[in-house]
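Standup notes, protein team

Yesterday: finished cleaning the Methylobacterium oryzihabitans set.
Today: Acyl-CoA dehydrogenase structure.
Blockers: none.

Input for Acyl-CoA dehydrogenase:
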Amino acid sequence: MSADMRRSPDQRDDDLMLREGARRFLEERCPWTPTLPSPGEEDAVRREMAGLGWFAMGLPEEFGGGGADALQALALVEEAGRVLLRRSLAADVLVVPRLMRRGFAGLTALAPGLAAGAVRFALVSGDPAAGGLSVAPGREGVRLRGGGGLALDAGAATHWLVAAGEGSPNGAALLCVEARPVPERRLIDGRRGAVPPLDGLDLPAGAVLATGHDALAAIDEIRDCAAAALVADAYGALAAGLDLTVGYLNQRRQFGQTLGSFQAVQHLMAEAFCDLETLRSLMLWSAASLDGAPAERRRAAASARVVLGREGLAAASRLIQASGGIAMTEEYRVGHVYKRLQVAAGIDGGTEARIRQLATDTLSPKGRPDDEASAA
């Protein structure tokens, strides 16, 4: 972990109080059930979160926020993952508050509404299979072209942060768009997403937050923050699933012994624990890197996503294997933990896309200078 993320005793005490308070609130107000909450219940919980200061916590102090760092914001995301919260907190407690540090006027004006819980953001990017998104001159200012990808909670958001023209600074743009009504899809893990209808949408020029290199830098930061939050949420879900499975194995008896007393089961749980700790290490690296150099931040985020898609899913599958058939019933949480990690691993191109990104960013097109061919 980088030096700027080392915690003083006071910071560690604050972190502990924040985490304990968040866990207590979420377990009391949002305990996991196989039944989906109603929109009214979700709105009531969000108002309570705003009253607790969750959405103002990460905002810069000049906009009335607490200036909390990434590790504190990610603690809330992680605890939400533990209860498999259906609505993502990532955009509102981490991504947008950090983006406001860049001083985009069209975004900072929304800070009071975000702090009060009245403004909700969803992160929208182009669908590569449809050629991505681009911006062209329009009747009112600009016009979006192309297809958008699946965005978590786009149907419940009041505003969409839209990344367009990511391939080149000549066409890159970051926009803040007032959300339109859009039907949501229920994902396999119970969360909801939507594909915003963006093709041909005319927007005022004020919707454009940044263009060119500034837009690319902001889009990269958004993507890396979102990846760190995705991994934190998955880690929280997996940690809670491991606790639940260990408790089950220590209670369920077979042949006069608890299941947890069998050596094969112990080995299975030891492997799941090691995978979980690997994911935690990468989560902390990605959190620490959010305030570092863009190249390090990008590498950490991509590496964490790779571990999520490999070790994370492997650990979740081991929990199901140890729990037996009950794990795949709708009424038991462990199966839903696996589904949540499946969705997380597949978002934004999935694990293979992150591996290709790491290879592109790390390896020279000419190969490593110390490879066997060069040595010969």
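Follow-up from PR in the comments: The two ends are 38 Å apart (CA to CA).
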